[in-house]
Amino acid sequence: MKDKLILPGKERRGPISWMTQNSVAANIVMLILVAGGLLQIFNIRQEFLPNAELDFITIRVPYPGASPEEVEQAIVLAVEEAVRGLDGVQEITAQANEGFGLVTVEMAPGYDTGRLSQDIQGEVDRIRTFPQDAEEPIISVSSFRREVLTVIVSTDTADTADTVLREITEEVRDSLIQSPGITQVELSNVRNYEISIEIPQDSLRAYNLTIQNVADIISRASVELPSGGMKTSSGEILVRVRDRRDYGEEFGKIPLITSPDGTQVLLEDVATIRDHFSDSDQFTYFNGKPALSISVYRIGKETPLTIEKATLEVLDQLEARLPEDIEF
């Protein structure tokens, strides 16, 4: 084979040409790159989706019993006017719903979320035109949570009460949270607890009561309020009124009427009190069986594989002590 003639001034230059003439150096560079890749492969973060930062701040103001039109006039317009001129605000969208108003502020690119959130908090606190029945505004920064897996807790027995299934699911959730490899867990698509109190009209007339009278008595009998402090020689003592009731049986012991001789008519004497769940059009089933779901999220340096391993370890421990009709 004849050597290729290279004319003077036409020599090949560049890293590829240099490596062809220095094979030992090229092999050393290749080994360095391979070794570096093997060392870094264990430090690569595993994700289902790329990281994304949200730049939205929401202001939610509950206004119980108000129509969307009332919420728009009394809540939404006031909040929009207060935050419109702040630095860092790019766009404002609002929703007027029955019982609450929701204002979403989109932040300008590159602006500090914490600073804008504080500015919005200050402006909303200065609003003095909110209705008396409106509750405290709730300001939150939208965050993107990375859900790794979902645990389904179902039962084979149709007779298992909803409250029992809920208690077992909460026990599973608490066990997952206590695992060192899991940070954030929450129940998904579950109905809220609710206490219903039903009083027949005849009972109200018999004791000369109205629904509003009963509602006021219940409200006064179930409170948890700070009451300031008392200065003593040994220091200041904080005073707090704690008479909170969490179950229907506790509400049933509230006295509605107390006669001069000490005789009392309790709420349970005139009303039907039930502990149950709020009404909902959404229900969870797994393979045709009643079920509840638990979402497990990734936080910080946690990876999907470590969370999966920790979850399986917790479920294996729970399976031995939970009822046989409960499945994961």
Defining key terms:
28% strand; extended; 10 helices; 4-stranded antiparallel β-sheet; alpha+beta; 328 residues; 15 strands; 5-stranded antiparallel β-sheet
Topology:
Blueprint lengths: L14 H7 L1 H18 L15 E7 L5 H16 L5 E9 L2 E8 L5 H13 L12 E4 L4 E10 L6 H17 L5 E5 L4 E6 L2 H6 L4 H11 L2 E9 L2 E8 L5 H5 L2 E4 L5 E3 H4 L1 E6 L7 E2 L2 E10 L5 H16 L6 E2 L1
Architecture overview:
This protein is 34% helix and 28% strand. With 328 residues, the protein is of the alpha+beta class. Strands 5, 6, 13, 14 and 15 form a five-stranded antiparallel β-sheet that branches. A four-stranded antiparallel β-sheet has the order 2-3-1-4. A two-stranded antiparallel sheet has the order 7-12. A hairpin with a 2-residue loop joins strand 2 and strand 3 (100-107). The longest helix is centred in the first third of the chain and has 18 residues, at 23-40. The radius of gyration is 32 Å and the shape is extended. The N and C termini lie far apart (72 Å). The model has no long low-confidence stretch (mean pLDDT 82).
